[in-house]
Amino acid sequence: MHNKDDHIMDSPDVMTVEELAGLMNTRWAGKNIVYYDATDSTNLRIKQLGREGAPHGTLAVAEQQAAGRGRRGRSWESPAGCGIYMSILLRPDIEPDKAPMLTLVAACSVAESLQDLCTGNMQVQIKWPNDIIISGKKLAGILTEMNVRAGKVDYVVVGMGINVNIADFPEKIRKTATSLRIESGRRIERAPVIAAVMERLEADYRIFMRTQDLSGLMDAYSRMLVNKDRDVLILGEKEQYRAHALGITPMGELIVRRGNGAEEKIRAGEVSVRGVYGYV
Ligand code: ATP
What we know:
By secondary structure, the protein is α+β, with helices and mostly antiparallel strands. The protein has helices spanning 6-9, 17-23, 42-51, 101-117, 180-184, 190-211, 218-224; strands at residues 33-36, 59-62, 83-90, 124-127, 131-134, 137-149, 152-163, 230-236, 240-248, 254-258, 263-266, 271-275. Helix 2 packs across helix 6 (190-211) and helix 4 (101-117) crosses helix 6. It is globular and about 55 Å long. Adenosine-5'-triphosphate binds next to strand 6 and strand 7.
């Protein structure tokens, strides 16, 4: 929805670290905030802070990213002042093969908190494993990276990009991307969104760490899973095929049924999933 005040609403919404810190209602998630007017990528900043020994829960927030990143070398559009570009440092005492599940934990937290903030009839969904969707378009993305030392997780970086007040997207993603502003027709302050995501992430992380799998979050995740009970295209490195998505396992794999009836579990990181007729 556009109106004649668009040029006013497009001016960047100013967010200060003091305002953000004042809103943070958590014990550890986002309690230590590192704020950048501009940076290359908040994931790269948090990796460096991780190497330097920064505490669990340290949050990097940037007004803009010159080299925002997606999975497998893709890029993340990060225009100044109208999106949330943030990465959190986690130091879970878990085996490295469990760390990819944190992508789904964060997807759950981002989706749940955005759903809470969205008034009216907007439905926030998750495209397995890591994309947050409204109206069939991508509203937010999550990029998880980890560092392993002596066979154990040293730290995990969870990067979150949320399109808040972006009014228009570059041509190449115009059909698949959306923002809270485009969907709601109004401008939304970013700091309370960040605080809400941190609060939810702290709670969901606790649930995850109890069992070190997704059994405590599966119901919530599955309710929001846009691919559930739909035909999907699985785009792998070697193979691309059509299948029917049934849901996720407690380890975060996507369960699909192939045309020949065989069921298989797909691990996140290996593939991209698309709808048969479009993005979801
Ligand atoms: P997809 O199925 O969308 O390719 P993915 O998980 O493999 O999902 P990501 O790595 O999460 O992709 O995100 C990178 C991709 O998202 C880019 O290749 C681009 O198509 C798209 N993209 C980049 N910036 C944005 C943005 N701000 N909002 C929505 N989509 C974006």
